[in-house]
Write a structure and sequence with these properties.
globular, 4 helices, mainly alpha
């Protein structure tokens, strides 16, 4: 499951990094967090895969988006929020 999540995150980050120079970074970070399914390791895996791409502005943007998502998740304890409380 971690592999599937990181595949989606990787594809999404690379697509947005390449296609949307002026993308709203906050919105993209929220999307990446949602796609992570509250699993930090999925974002870490996607970030590790980014490093294998040829350097360029789009890759730098994608890496920055993934790093921002990790920082936001850490700052808000996103990984530990329990949504099963009723």
């Amino acid at each position: 499951m971690a592999g599937e999540s990181s595949d989606v995150l990787f594809d999404h980050a690379v697509h947005l990094g390449a296609a949307l120079e002026s993308a709203d970074a906050d919105e993209v970070v929220v999307e990446l967090l949602a796609l992570s399914n509250r699993r930090r390791e999925a974002l870490e895996d996607a970030l590790a895969r980014i490093r294998y791409l040829h350097p360029g502005e789009d890759v730098s943007r994608a890496e920055g988006l993934l790093r921002a998502a990790l920082r936001r998740g850490d700052a808000t304890d996103y990984w530990r929020i329990d949504l099963t409380d009723t």
